[in-house]
Amino acid sequence: MEKSILTFNDLPEVVAQLRDEVMSL
After folding, report:
1. Long-range contacts of 21-25, Cβ-Cβ distance < 8 Å, separation of 24 or more
2. In this predicted structure, what is the pLDDT of residue 4?
3. What is 1-25 written as a DSSP string?
4. Among candidate residues 5, 6, 4, 2, the one with its CA nearest the CA of residue 15
5. C-alpha–C-alpha distance, residues 24 and 3, integer Å
6. Are 17 and 24 within 8 A, CB to CB?
7. pLDDT digits (tens, 9 = 90+) for 1-25
8. What are phi and psi of 13, to 5 degrees?
9. Rg of the chain on CA atoms, in Å
10. Cα(25)–Cα(11) distance, rounded to whole angstroms?
11. What's the pTM value of the predicted model, to 2 decimals?
């Protein structure tokens, strides 16, 4: 992780990745 601080612009992508991980469970 190069950036330890997430910006609001990164939130949509992070949420999408988390949602994909949850769906794959």
Report:
1. none
2. 63
3. ---SS--TTTHHHHHHHHHHHHHH-
4. 6
5. 26
6. no
7. 566 677 888 889 999 999 999 999 8
8. -70, -40
9. 10
10. 21
11. 0.51
